[in-house]
């Protein structure tokens, strides 16, 4: 077996890319598994190879300063056969890019959970004066135990930087690049935050924020001018994504500011699970109480019958819907569109249910439909059985994503819905466009 630096025994190849090859290896000195990334230096002159090695050593020392549970630790940087080798923490994992290739998109809560761990590491890095410079799904690792860690703090771009200087060309992943970097600015924490936003956007929207472009020059132009396709499927993450993907660096929030926000969004699923569990327990307790009450009432009735009197139990009360219930109903309704128009029509009261042909024709013109921000819910009756809901929708035209649609091809519309409670269920009674 091959040994690197007379210490690290290469065991098996984990993967490779344009900038290097990653191996699982054994540290013979400390008796532990590590990951070794051997950087490739394609077509560089001897002086440029030396410069790349020096840069790798320098950035390796910088990256090794960061110790955080959500960042892959850097243990060592060595030179083997004239090429820099980065020795890192080994994490049995899959990259986020692999996960997205398999699943397409992730629910907003899951994307927030992953993003919360990434931004926690970025906050620590920025506090230590370290800029990652290459946040993207390929550099986010999802451990087999669910842990999330980011890797490649600047090291993977060390040889690339030399190549850019030499040829004047831009290589590497452009889809997650901040606009100011496409215009020639130096990387800084604000650029990392844009790339974080682009990575979260890819998780929920299924593509990078600049859409698809036929060539790198066209993509660079879209990046440099900030032509982000507005999110339509990101739900509660949409307002944060809008801020992270701001074209001006000064308009983006810092990692420290975003950490708590993403953690709170990620906690939504746990809270909902807890509420559901509590509801189940409450239902069991209520059932027990009702059963006991029934027995007592029955006994009272039986006893009273001998004296010629009976006791009537009170009728059960109907469910009271909260603002959260109404919001959840609205979100699940629009989640069915545009694909499941038949299912969406079942959310209407029968007498006002949209005609099938016209309803299908309307929704066929849209490729994606999303609720932008939080719906505004108000009760319109003292019995809380009627609600008015105002919400903003984002509507992307059919074929827009394939064309790399510019911003103006996504329509924003404000709607008002009137909801009623029928037989213990929420239903839509009326809908109208109130776009200013």
List the keywords.
Nuclear Transport Factor 2, Chain: A, alpha+beta, 436 residues, 12 helices, Transferase(Phosphotransferase), domain 1, 13 strands, single chain, 3 domains, Phosphorylase Kinase, domain 1, 39% helix
Neighbour order of strands in the largest sheet: 1-2-3-4-6-5
Distance between the termini: 70 Å
The CATH architecture of the largest domain can be given as Orthogonal Bundle
Structural class: alpha+beta
Task: Note the beta-strand portion.
Answer: 15-25%
- Domain module count: 3
How much helix is in the residues? 25-40%
Q: State the low-pLDDT regions, or none.
A: 156-172, 271-287, 300-316
Radius of gyration: 28 Å
Could you give the topology of this structure?
Layout: E1 3-4, E2 8-16, E3 20-27, E4 32-39, H1 46-63, E5 74-80, E6 83-89, E7 93-95, H2 96-103, H3 108-127, E8 140-143, E9 148-150, H4 158-167, H5 179-182, H6 189-205, H7 216-224, H8 238-244, H9 255-305, H10 323-335, H11 341-345, H12 356-364, E10 366-379, E11 386-397, E12 410-422, E13 425-433
Antiparallel strand pairs: 1-2, 2-3, 3-4, 4-6, 5-6, 7-8, 8-9, 10-11, 11-12, 12-13
Helix pairs in contact: 1-4, 3-6, 3-9, 6-8
In short:
The chain has 436 residues and is of the alpha+beta class.
Task: Characterise the protein shown here.
The strands form 3 sheets. A 6-stranded antiparallel sheet has the order 1-2-3-4-6-5. A 4-stranded antiparallel sheet has the order 10-11-12-13. By secondary structure, the protein is of the alpha+beta class. The chain is 39% helix and 23% strand. It folds into 3 domains: 3-89, Phosphorylase Kinase, domain 1 (2-Layer Sandwich), CATH 3.30.200.20; 93-267, Transferase(Phosphotransferase), domain 1, CATH 1.10.510; 323-433, Nuclear Transport Factor 2, Chain: A (Roll). The protein has 12 helices and 13 strands. It has helices spanning 46-63, 96-103, 108-127, 158-167, 179-182, 189-205, 216-224, 238-244, 255-305, 323-335, 341-345, 356-364, and strands spanning 3-4, 8-16, 20-27, 32-39, 74-80, 83-89, 93-95, 140-143, 148-150, 366-379, 386-397, 410-422, 425-433.
